[in-house]
From TrEMBL:
Xref: InterPro entries: HAD-like_sf, HAD-SF_hydro_IA, HAD_sf, PGP-like_dom2
Keyword Hydrolase: yes
Record CDD domains: HAD_BPGM-like (cd07505)
Organism superkingdom: Bacteria
Alphabetical UniProt keywords: Hydrolase
Gene3D superfamilies for this protein: HAD superfamily/HAD-like (3.40.50.1000), Putative phosphatase, domain 2 (1.10.150.240)
GO molecular function: hydrolase activity
Protein name: HAD family hydrolase
Length: 233
């Protein structure tokens, strides 16, 4: 760590204080976006259907209801959304029980945010049962709170999860930096008014106003995030 990191609440430029960092989970902190697709392929194979690889970009990063609903409609599988949700969550839990790799730079970023006491939240479209299985690997002490996709009226791409996280931390969404890996998550964060760092995992994400695209979490640190708030105020 360097001494150039501003203390929490210090303005690096007028109105540019970083109040909190809100982090997506799958594909951002843990290398699991591929796990979801593999499980979807396996479950639908057991139902007698083959998934088209082009559908992967449709379902990535979205809520379970959207991705599972799309796959049922696309394949014509004879299964209800509720039944499929259970199978997908069960299959995913089995995968992460076997291996749960962190994304490069994730452990270092979480440690740095904790060292400088930056309020941090985990904000995921995954259900609470999945988040609670992943948190022990990430370190629950790194997060003041977590928001699951089945705990908000509308999950990503709607702003509700990020608005709920900001409210829970007692901060202004405009003063929050969000780290996301999918267009769906970026859309949710921007709709909430947050500054976004996009680290694409599966599909491409283009730079835009209040959005910075980087190749890896390894280039994201607290100095970077403070600078982001200054540049995009």
């Amino acid at each position: 760590m360097t001494s150039t990191v501003p203390a929490l609440g210090t303005l690096t430029a007028e109105g540019s204080a970083l109040q909190a960092v809100l982090l997506d989970m799958d594909g951002t902190l843990v290398d699991t976006e591929g796990f979801w697709w593999d499980v979807e392929v396996e479950v639908f194979a057991s139902l007698g259907h083959t998934l088209d690889d082009s559908w992967r970009h449709v379902v990535v990063g979205g809520p379970m209801t959207r991705s599972a609903g799309f796959l049922i409609e696309a394949t014509g599988a004879d299964i209800s959304l509720a039944e499929l949700t259970v199978l997908l969550n069960d299959g995913f839990e089995d995968r992460i029980d076997r291996a749960l790799p962190l994304m490069p730079g994730a452990a270092r970023l979480l440690a740095e945010l904790a060292e400088y006491e930056i309020p941090t939240a985990l904000v995921s479209a995954s259900h609470r049962r999945i988040i609670d299985r992943v948190l022990p690997v990430l370190g629950p002490q790194h997060f003041a709170l977590s928001v699951a996709g089945d705990e908000v009226p509308r999950t990503k791409p709607h702003p509700d999860p990020y608005l709920a996280a900001a409210e829970g931390l007692g901060v202004n969404p405009v003063r929050c930096a969000v780290v996301e890996d999918t267009v769906t998550g970026v859309t949710a964060a921007e709709a909430a008014g947050c500054h976004v760092v996009a680290v694409p995992s599966v599909g491409p994400i283009t730079p835009a106003a209040r959005r910075t695209v980087v190749p890896s979490l390894e280039v994201v640190d607290l100095t970077f995030l403070h600078g982001l708030m200054t540049q995009m105020r």
